[in-house]
From TrEMBL:
Key word Disulfide bond present: yes
Transmembrane segments: none
Tagged with keyword Transmembrane: no
Coiled-coil parts of chain: none
Entries under PANTHER family matching the protein: C-TYPE LECTIN DOMAIN-CONTAINING PROTEIN, LITHOSTATHINE
Superkingdom of source: Eukaryota
Organism: Heterosigma akashiwo (Chromophytic alga)
InterPro entries, sorted: C-type_lectin-like, C-type_lectin-like/link_sf, C-type_lectin_CS, Ca-Dep_Lectins_ImmuneDev, CTDL_fold
Keywords for this protein: Disulfide bond
All residue ranges annotated as the C-type lectin domain in the record: 1-93, 101-202
Protein's name in the database: C-type lectin domain-containing protein
Length: 202
């Protein structure tokens, strides 16, 4: 899946994760396996300013029996160090791709528009559903704009800028490319940005 055990760096994330687990005790990414007493997250970053160790008679972390190097979130949302060999639910943090569309009203050729999109960290946009189509029409205000669809490699075979085929969805009506005949050409860029989704595995 391309993820790792979750990092929890704020009380807001802690609350979100507790809601997600429903109070089920689950492994998180914090551990001191490399150096006893020095806790790091699964991605190697230090524990930081936020912690939520369970309090009580023993206090946590307590490395009970000199054998507790991994950390779980308990039913209260607090953290407890425990033996890494215990079996229980786990909380994974998995990167996901979030699409964000931006509209640029500069008058550009298609090649220059493509270069501008790449410079912004994205590419000319793919439109793969009616919902995205409606979102983009609203974003452009109805102005003509370059999108990623093209048949430059093979005449009549359209692909998106990322190389994927046009798929099942195409807008109704006639597909018209914008021209420079006195009308500004917009550029629609869909940069990809990494977000995070947390998933509980039971």
């Amino acid at each position: 899946l391309g993820g790792m055990l979750a990092s929890i760096d704020s009380s807001d994330v802690d609350s979100e994760v507790l809601d997600l687990t429903g109070g089920t005790t689950a492994w998180i990414g914090l551990n001191d396996e490399s150096t006893e007493g020095t806790y790091v997250w699964a991605d190697g970053t230090s524990v930081g300013d936020y912690t939520n160790w369970n309090s009580g008679e023993t206090g946590e972390p307590n490395d009970w029996g000199d054998s507790e190097d991994c950390v779980e979130m308990t039913s209260s949302g607090g953290w407890n160090d425990n033996s890494c060999s215990n079996t229980q639910a786990s909380l994974c943090e998995i990167p996901t791709i979030l699409l964000e569309y931006s509209y640029y009203s500069d008058s550009l050729s298609r090649d220059d528009a493509e270069s501008a999109c790449e410079a912004a960290g994205g590419m000319l946009a793919s439109i793969t559903s009616a919902e995205i189509d409606e979102e983009i029409v609203e974003l452009t205000g109805g102005d003509s704009a370059w999108i990623g669809l093209n048949d430059e490699s093979t005449e009549g075979t359209y692909v998106w800028a990322d190389g994927t085929s046009v798929g099942d969805y195409t807008p109704t009506g006639t597909l018209v490319s914008p021209t420079t005949g006195g009308t500004p050409i917009g550029t629609l860029v869909s940069p990809t940005t990494l977000g995070r989704v947390r998933t509980v595995w039971r």
